[in-house]
Amino acid sequence: MIEVVSFVSGAPVVVPVAEASRPRPLRVLVVANQKGGVGKTTTAINLGTALAAVGERVLLIDSDPQGNASTGLGVPRAERRVTLYDVLMGATPLLDAVTATRLPGLDLAPADPDLSGVEIELGQEARRSFRLRDALQAVRDSGRYTYVLIDCPPSLNLLTVNAMAAADAVLVPLQCEFFALEGLSQLMRTVDLVRGSLNPRLEIQGVVLTMFDSRNRLSEQVAGDVRSHFGDTVYRTVIPRNVRVSEAPSFGKPVLVYDIHCAGSQAYLKLAREVVQRERARREAA
Question: What CATH number has the domain spanning 22-285?
Answer without folding.
Answer: 3.40.50.300
